[in-house]
Amino acid sequence: MLKLYNYWRSSSSYRVRIALNLKGAPYENVAVHLVRNGGENHSAEYHALNPQELVPLLVDGDYSLGQSLAIFHYLESRLPKPALAPADPRQAGRMWSFCQAVACEIQPMQNTRVLNYLKDELALDEERRMVWLRHWIGIGLQALEETLSARLESAYCFGDSPSYADCCLVPQMYSAERFGAVRDWPRLKAINARCVEHPAFAAAHPDKQPDAQPA
Fold first, then answer.
1. Which of 82, 90, 129, 214 is the most exposed place for a label (fewest CB within 10 A)?
2. C-alpha distances in angstroms, 87 versus 73, 90, 100, 164?
3. Cα 206 to the center of its chain, rounded Å
4. Phi, psi of 205 (to 5 degrees)
């Protein structure tokens, strides 16, 4: 069975949980708390598994893989049905570009280690950190709103069934709400609302995870 090392509120972990659920792939959920005891991801035991000390980490037998988009590519090869990437190469290219915009441009700005650096090394107070964070989330999601709005309407980001783009969008919208960064994004909000009603997305929600903490 696959094993997923992840943290309940990590958006990169959240997106991989969605993908695994959409694939119908059973997995063992291994919680790695990013705050408790200075961060369990920094323990010697976890470092030996993943020197990057990040989540998620997917383990498949004697094979392990970090970074959510790399995990997506692995899942698509390892478990091709149902497909979560468009068959058309141009559409697939657009979808992966969307995924990278979230995973490489927006989400890293909200990582715990980045926010801790702003607090501990640059001495930014909570208000200034949130202003900084909302700025970058807002810019990134506004671009994705315009990207999707310029295309034909579809039930999901890139068609009438969920793709990896939707796996990336929903956790980022969750984080935008959490940090008070939501703006008037009708297309993103409509797709997000449809996704969160889907059983695979609902089961992956942070509040449904065994390591979820009280608000």
1. 214
2. 14, 9, 18, 13
3. 11
4. -55, 140
